[in-house]
Design brief:
alpha/beta; Alpha-Beta Plaits; FAD/NAD(P)-binding domain; seven-stranded mixed sheet; five-stranded parallel sheet; about 30% helix; binds flavin-adenine dinucleotide
């Protein structure tokens, strides 16, 4: 009898323990669901819920709500859990590296391009990476496939195809011009070297492409990749610096020089060959490989003085900039985040935006910039336009203050980007809209 009572008491205690754990588990799940649902509502309100490009789509019949996808995504609040299932929150902020796709233990995630409502325009590319303009090829994210690994793979395959098809094209001094030196262009350049082609690689900015401009130091490599003339790269998680160093080292070792700060403006067919017009000169080539990604070129203001060295279109290493008079131009998240970071580093920051008020900002950024304006840690000038950029000052015109001259050391312009579609259409490349086409599926 005594043993029976003891056992009963033990079972009772274990039962109570399990009930308490279950209670707190369900409570935390409930809290998580409520918080995710609130975030989804906010994302809908601010226009971030609808995806704009590649994004995860969850199969709810398979999803077990493990949360592995939420934990794997280094971008904040793209995914969350509601009632034990993964849901997209700010799907428009997805950068398409597919960490969630690989992390899902039950393969419930596919990566889809565009949605039924919002299509994504993509160029026509054959299985050989050739466009409808014979001799012009496309690889990497421009063709619709994000991820460093995929860009590297496609750059290599496209260049192998170009090598095999060269005899079909008019002979020129250059066999191929590679446009863009992101992961895809780098891999294509290494393959061109391996195949003894005469080639040049033109980059409007700096070697590394989108990776160079990452706002975070961490790079997620979801699976190993094969880098031509180097071999297998087995990095699952690495830093931006480490990856850029690897690319620099491999290119240097193989005597490949990338023409940086040389933007391709036009590509014309001329006597069976291609005339490639850049910001510096004109080249002739048998074929062209476009590896220009999908981020386009920064939009310029078109004001006198914009060509000065102190003017840039992205912010790298704000922690190294102190005690400067800085003008940030723009009203989007990039402009606001940059202005805030620069102000934190004890710079004297002015933010000029041509709009009447800020719209479509991340809620946190909107709060922060309104506070910074009130506290005068940033001088915010709405309804304003930059008129001229001089060596030590800028001329700015605004509704409230008229024309004013401000002391200035640095100018950061975030006026959006010119997407590559116009450039492609001018070459004659056909573009079609994809309405929810699955790009990656298990
Ligand atoms: C914030 C962010 C985080 C990401 N994180 C990851 C990650 O962790 N892991 C991952 O696998 N992927 C990640 N991605 C995606 C990855 O960066 C891209 O898929 C990849 O860089 C695409 O490579 P690409 O070579 O096709 O194009 P890009 O890297 O975009 O390179 C294109 C290059 O072409 C140049 N160019 C464009 N137009 C011209 C022109 N007219 N003339 C000359 N040059 C031109 C550009 O300056 C650029 O250097 C991330 C993307 C973003 C935005």
């Amino acid at each position: 009898m005594e043993v029976f009572v003891e056992n009963l008491a033990a079972y009772f205690l274990v039962g109570i323990f399990i009930a308490i754990v279950l209670f707190y588990y369900l409570k935390s799940k409930k809290r998580q669901s409520v918080s995710t649902e609130a975030k989804i509502q906010k994302a809908i309100e601010y226009g971030f819920h609808e995806p704009v490009s590649l994004h995860p789509v969850i199969d709810y019949d398979i999803c077990i709500g493990s949360g592995a996808c939420v934990a794997a995504c280094p971008e904040k609040d793209i995914l969350g859990l509601v009632n034990g299932k993964a849901k997209t929150i700010n799907a428009s902020h997805c950068v398409g590296h597919g960490a969630c796709f690989h992390a899902c233990p039950v393969q419930a995630i596919s990566l889809v391009m565009g949605t039924e409502k919002r299509g994504v325009e993509l160029p026509h590319v054959s299985q050989y990476y050739e466009t409808n303009v014979p001799g012009v090829f496309i690889a990497g994210e421009l063709g619709g496939m994000g991820l460093i690994k995929n860009a590297v793979e496609q750059g290599k395959l496209a260049m192998e195809n170009i090598t095999g098809k060269l005899k079909n094209f008019s002979k020129s001094k250059l066999d191929v011009i590679i446009v863009g030196a992101g992961p895809s262009g780098i891999s294509a350049s290494l393959t061109a070297k391996k195949n003894n082609l005469n080639f040049i690689t033109l980059e409007q900015d700096t070697l590394g492409g989108t990776v160079f401009a990452f706002p975070r130091a961490k790079v997620v490599m979801t699976s190993p990749m094969e880098l031509p003339l180097h071999g297998r790269v087995k990095l699952t998680e690495t830093s931006k610096i480490e990856l850029l160093k690897l690319w620099h080292d491999v290119l240097n070792k193989n005597n490949i020089k990338i023409n940086e700060s040389e933007k391709v403006l036009e590509i014309n067919k001329h006597e069976g060959m291609f005339e490639v017009v850049t910001s510096k000169q004109t080249y002739e080539t048998s074929t062209v490989l476009l590896t220009i990604g999908r981020r386009g070129s920064p939009r310029k203001l078109g004001v006198p003085g914009e060509e000065k060295e102190k003017v840039t279109y992205r912010l790298l290493e704000p922690e190294l900039i102190h005690d400067k008079n800085i003008l940030v131009v723009g009203g989007g998240d990039s402009a606001i985040e940059s202005a805030l970071l620069l102000a934190e580093e004890k710079n004297n920051v002015t933010l000029s935006y041509r709009g009447e008020s800020f719209s479509r900002l991340k809620p946190k950024n909107l709060d922060k910039i309104n506070n910074a304006g009130k506290n005068k840690t940033i001088k915010v000038i709405l309804n304003s336009n930059v008129k001229e950029i001089l060596d030590d000052s800028i001329i700015i015109e605004s509704k409230e203050e008229g024309t004013a001259s401000l002391e200035n050391d640095l100018v950061y312009i975030f006026a959006g980007g010119e997407l590559p579609n116009k450039f492609l259409e001018k070459i004659g490349i056909r573009i079609t809209k994809k309405f929810g086409e699955t790009i990656l599926k298990h």
